[in-house]
Write a structure and sequence with these properties.
Strand order of the largest sheet: 2-4-5-7-6
Order of helices and strands: HHHHHEHHEEHEEHHEEH
Oligomer: single chain
Radius of gyration: 35 Å
CATH class of the largest domain: Alpha Beta
Shape: elongated
CATH topology of the largest domain: Heat Shock Protein 90
Number of helices: 11
CATH superfamily of the largest domain: Histidine kinase-like ATPase, C-terminal domain
Distance between the termini: 35 Å
Membrane topology: Multi-pass membrane protein
Strand content: 5-15%
Main location: membrane
Structural class: alpha+beta
Number of strands: 7
EC number: 2.7.13.3
CATH architecture of the largest domain: 2-Layer Sandwich
GO cellular component, one term: plasma membrane
Enzyme class: transferase
Largest sheet: 5 strands, mixed
Number of domains: 3
Length: 350
């Protein structure tokens, strides 16, 4: 706080001092044995001014460190790290004790919240791993009964199992967003080696909907986390398949330009209305198609894709035209963040 603002806050003290000076002058004027003169009035004014100035300077110097602490805390936005210890007056000590108690309660609440989040994280991880076992058993059972089922029933069962596995993966990756920095490994990855297995996993969808795909461009090597990028591509390809009509097609393009390496996934599906395109990466946003076409959309797939791309240092873009199709592009910039110094920044930022 500046001295000028301090004086504004001490306006009551200044007015009180002025009133005392006027009363002193009045008493001298009313006292018969005392000769009233303007020299006496000026002397009293100087005397009161000196006493008042000394009082204000001493008070300001005592308060300055107190206010500086609050200003520094506000600038650093570090409100609940350190306890207050600079109070001197009884008023400031009372405020200090109140704030320290609030900080202590905040720390307790924060610790309990973090512990609960950790317990929830551990429960979700355990639940995901536990549920994958019966899912694998169901898949094996379905394959064993394939000859006894019609193609339609078999594809329906495969579709349901695939959806369950997708939802389970979404839960797992959503729960791990906050702990991303503890679970990533940046290394060189060939994009086609990530894309082809995902296409094979969705082979029954391509057969059932009579879809075909085309991969254009030479294989590209990028720096990324293979597991997280694979999940991102699964969400994008799954959406492309879901919202592409029978007989449609997907085009997967790999190329480079001055900005970096690009991966483009283009479909000729139903497209996205223009007014919804800015929201497709929002958490929980399913859009008009997700609500009206019985696609059982969760609104988490593209949200997770966007969040993970940002954490990996990639960029994701969407272009779409209603009833014409949608193109999702991922840019892998010519990176330098994987150097040791910048990798530490990446870890600390997440």
């Amino acid at each position: 706080m500046s001295f000028f603002h301090f004086l504004i806050d001490q306006l009551a003290t200044l007015i009180f001092t002025l009133i005392l000076w006027l009363l002193s002058c009045l008493i001298i004027w009313l006292t018969p044995d005392v000769i009233f003169s303007w020299e006496t009035v000026a002397y009293l004014a100087v005397l009161y001014s000196i006493v008042l100035t000394i009082h204000l300077l001493i008070r300001y110097s005592k308060k300055k460190n107190w206010w500086s602490f609050f200003k520094k805390t506000q600038e650093e936005q570090d409100y609940f790290t350190n306890y207050l210890e600079l109070a001197q007056s009884h008023e400031d000590i009372l405020i200090q004790e109140y704030l320290n108690q609030a900080i202590n309660e905040h720390r307790d609440i924060l610790t309990k919240t973090l512990n609960k989040q950790q317990e929830q994280q551990e429960f979700i991880d355990s639940w995901v791993h536990e549920i994958k076992l019966p899912l694998a058993s169901l898949r094996l059972l379905g394959e064993a009964l394939q000859d006894d089922l019609t193609d339609q029933h078999f594809y329906q069962m495969e579709h349901s199992l695939k959806q369950i596995e997708s939802y389970v993966d979404q839960v797992l990756y959503y729960a791990r967003l906050d702990s991303f920095s503890k679970d990533y490994l940046i290394q060189e990855c060939q994009l086609k080696q990530l894309i082809i297995p995902i296409l094979r996993e969705n082979a029954h969808y391509f057969i059932q909907k009579n879809l075909h795909y085309e991969m254009i461009g030479e294989d590209q090597v990028v720096l990324t986390d293979q597991k997280w990028l694979s999940f991102i591509l699964k969400q994008i390809i799954s959406n492309s398949i879901k919202y592409t009509a029978e007989g449609g097609s997907l085009k997967i393009k790999l190329y480079q330009n001055s900005q970096g390496t690009w991966l483009s996934i283009e479909d000729n599906g139903i497209g996205i209305p223009l007014h919804e395109q800015r929201r497709i990466f929002d958490k929980g946003f399913t859009g008009s198609h997700g609500r009206s076409l019985n696609k059982q959309s969760t609104g988490l797939g593209l949200y997770l894709a966007k969040e993970l791309c940002e954490k990996l240092g990639h960029q994701i873009f969407v272009e779409s035209e209603l009833n014409q199709g949608t193109t999702i592009q991922i840019l892998f910039p010519y990176l330098t963040y994987f150097t040791q110094d910048n990798e530490e920044k990446l870890i600390s930022s997440h």
